[in-house]
Request: fold
Amino acid sequence: MFGNKIMPHKKLENSPKQTSPIAKPEPVKEKAVGLPQDVAAIRKEIKLFFTSLDDKGKRIGNCQWGVYAFYDYDGEPIYVGQTFEGLSSRIGRHLTNQRTDAVAMNVLDPFEVAEICVWPLDLNHLKEDEQKAYLDRAEFTVFQTVIKESKLGAVLNEKPPHIAEEVKLPKCHRKRIIPDDIFPHRKHPDTRIARRASTIASLARVISERKVSYGLRQTLLTQARRLEHLAAERLNDFSKDDREEKVD
Reply:
């Protein structure tokens, strides 16, 4: 009995595959997730604006030269810029990604931009150096205009344009880029106060970690003044009864 050789069992080729009771299920392939609905809707509005036509029948976004200004939800001007590479291209970089110094340095929060105003310029008849000089003059003119419009007498530009002779500006094209169904939520002061405070903290951190210009510190002060102004307005929304109400 003990001398008999025990032969190993042959594994059946067609035998069912043993699976562990805790084996992971096969992953389900899902479709790639697109942009959030509100972001997609805002980008659509921006695209519609730049494909709209000016008085000469040309697309606004195709204009190579121009000056632009951004406004927040209260109609307060917050930033001024110029471009020689196309209005659509330049403004698109501000509002749809991080590839501008103003956004990357937390000077400008795209979330704050509710309206765009552009002044397209036709400078084809000028030489290259003359084009740049005229752009500078046009930007200074717009800058002076929006500073007068501002309740704080300031915008968020780190580097204000050089003082130059003002020019007669062409017709401006202005549009709100936030759709009606999103606007009330984005405009809510509590949402904007939280967002603005976060932007200030990020900008202050940048300043604390590197050597920065006087202009960037001035921008931090302007941001703080903007936050204080909005917080004060929000406080005034509450009546005397609201202020005396106890909170559990």
The two ends are 85 Å apart (CA to CA). The first strand starts at residue 65 and ends at 71. The first helix runs from residue 37 to 51. The mean pLDDT is 88.
